[in-house]
Amino acid sequence: MDWLTRMKDALDYIEDHMEEPVSISDIAKTACSSTFHFQRMFHMLTGMTVAEYIRKRRLTLAAQELAVSSTKVLDTALKYGYDSPESFAKAFRKIHGIAPSQARDPGVKLEAFPRISFHLSLKGDQDMDYRIVEKDGFTVVGKSIQVSLKDGDNFKQIPAFWAESDTDGTSEALLELGSGGEMLGICTEMQQGQEQFTYIIAVESNQEAPASSGFITYEVPAATWAVFPVTGAMPDAMQDIWKRIFQEWFPATGYEHADAPEFELYSPGDPAAADYRSEVWIPVLKK
Fold it and tell me: Which residues belong to any copy of the HTH araC/xylS-type domain (predicted)?
């Protein structure tokens, strides 16, 4: 499929630019994709961010170079994008567990992070229902946190944020400001090169947030949305559908992620129930 070829082209581009600065927007262009869509697709397919992958590949190549040559540590650090021996040594030790100067020691163990490859796996064991919805822009009031994508921390931080909001009165206070009983979990503001995004627990509302509440007001723009129904207990059912959207649905369709927020819609009821119903709304455009 075209998306496999485009992802391979992006990986080729990354490998060809290991020794020079590279922007995620340029990588995304190689894949004929928007920056946002490429970052989200890459993270959902690999479990790591683009920046994290580049960092691990560069440190693998740097270790190999130090082990088999007499290249100075400083020269290797500069070659692979580090401004100082100190920052290089810190990153190197995190991956390999030793200082760069120890890479030449006889019998030393080094970690090798190989180049990844993408393969299409057509499971076909479970239908993926969705509908396309045109929706005008709307205003929400909510509470936000910064969520890290590194090492899958987002799958831990978001459920913890919901649990805290449900116990400290945040969810109840937001429902009083909302126009219905539904709550939203909005993913937004993932900027180029960053390994984090903003997550907002919110309700659709035309009311002003009380000044003392710590809540924010956010405008969700008008967009075309792919809406995916979710049935099952939180957070597992929600996390599963997110992965399937990017691993199965996007590659199998002619849609691409539009540069707009994503959100989860939670209906009234018991989120721990096996028949609990919620939705994922993804902004899309037809390629």
Answer: 8-106
114 assigned to some structural domain: no
pLDDT digits (tens, 9 = 90+) for 197-219: 899 999 999 888 887 889 999 99
Gap between the Cα atoms of 203 and 175, Å rounded: 7
Same domain, 158 and 272: yes
What is the per-residue DSSP string for 179-247?
Answer: SSS-EEEEEE---TT-SEEEEEEEEE-SSPPPTTS--EEEEEPPEEEEEEEEESSTTHHHHHHHHHIII
For the four alpha carbons of 220, 225, 229 and 234, in that order, the dihedral sign comes to negative
Contacts of 254 (CB under 8 A, 6+ apart): 286, 287
Same domain, 189 and 264: yes
- The reply to whether 10 and 146 lie within a common domain is no
Confidence at 195, pLDDT banded by 50, 70, 90 = confident
> Residue 197 is part of which domain span?
131-286
Report if pTM > 0.85: no
- Same domain, residue pair 167 and 229: yes
Helix/strand/coil for 16? helix
Judgement on whether residues 95 and 136 belong to the same structural domain of the protein: no
CATH number reported for the structural domain that contains residue 163 in this entry: 3.20.80.10
Based on the fold, state whether residues 143 and 237 are members of the same structural domain.
yes
| Widest distance between CA atoms in the chain | 68
pLDDT the model gives residue 113:
92
